[in-house]
């Protein structure tokens, strides 16, 4: 608490320092202006990467094998279990908005991670306790044997169900609030205004995905093996230990962090723009945009500066109605207007950016619906196949998801070390290729992941039903490999895109917005499963039970569901091409930048949003 008071006390001092240069407002652990030679950089970011590796290690081991625990220990049906898993993961990413808002507005990234890191840790511990104590679970029962005998296992209900969901959603709350702040706090260790640091920032985003891949790989191999052979209680306990190690890593870097202080409510200035634009909806915008309030930095204490590109974007035809919020009433008096009636150009620009990136965000939802299948139905696919690697070693089906990460821990360093510098020579872009292009390539690859999944599921099912043979589990590795490569492009590109769009003081929140794509994708998966089951069962296309109506994949038509997703994925890619072109389009303007200095729309300078921008 004392540190947070010091952060607020020194906020004014840091702002004055920021006005004299381009350095971001950053403070050390005591609340004093940070020293570039002592604070920040890759050394500080490494401690955050440690937290990221351990945190993803803990939650991935739970999330990726959760469906097995829910079916075998809690005795929920296959479709209900799949929805429990997707709803849980969707909630994790939706709660990222809460973590981003609390961080930017009140707590700061460090304190948000520390507080909610302990919330996540308590959820892991409670899951471990329930898995260990027989009285907190339904009686043991074999679902397959019970189904063959026409019986049903007793489903978890009442207090047992309550304990499970409380523990599960403590993990969801903690992880959701921690996730966006790990990325944002790590990126905050670099000054994007410095060309040298900007390149390091690009390297950091790739390093963050490498840390994510390492955590996932360990979770999907070692931790899932522990869950399979030592029990889920030990497995959940190891997840708790991993989270504790992550918190130790976070705290160990305290002396080296450059911390961005919270700015107060980040939503108030946004709301003021909409209110002011509505109140002045009948006003006519001046033909000269320089007459708009704040367009020439004529606002007292306004430290905002604009590039020529930003000016052309601000006054483009997109969302032109918002410019009315900057019209100063000419009533012959010098009456000062309320900030709810008169806003600065900086505020309007922020709102325009937020509205412009929504279609880009929405175009990645179907992509994450595909990810949901790899964590639910594809795991069940693996459980119906031959998991034997040697005579004595069997591959846990949940470990299938480790396949892309084995590839990525090799590909990501090669990408950053060789491809990025090579591409940079041709594009002049710090990241090699722009985040928008990176996202688009990833979305294109995702379609082929579902095509591979559909083909292999059809082969697996036909072989099992018609030939009474079981295929090797390695037959379904292509869908994981293709999607892993797709995720490397899409996920990293999306986070980098949003972080570089954000106004200063909103990095954590806009990073959290990228996680909402995961959330909506997993919720869409649950909706699709229920909708497809309802439609196909009523049409009788799968013997009356629907494509996914049975607990036996040999009777279900998972292959048809995968083909449906492949079609949706391709349509989504075409949709993305339209919106990315719309976003990148820059109207001709006399204020355009000179040749050779053109900057992609996605790399505009950052703008800080705080009360100093409000008259």
Automatic annotation (TrEMBL):
The keyword Cell membrane does not apply. Signal peptide: none annotated. Keywords: Membrane, Transmembrane, Transmembrane helix. InterPro entries: MFS_trans_sf, POT_fam. Residues 588-615 are annotated as: Disordered. It comes from the Eukaryota. It is found in: Membrane. Belongs to the major facilitator superfamily. Proton-dependent oligopeptide transporter (POT/PTR) (TC 2.A.17) family. This is Protein NRT1/ PTR FAMILY 4.3-like. It comes from Prunus yedoensis var. nudiflora.
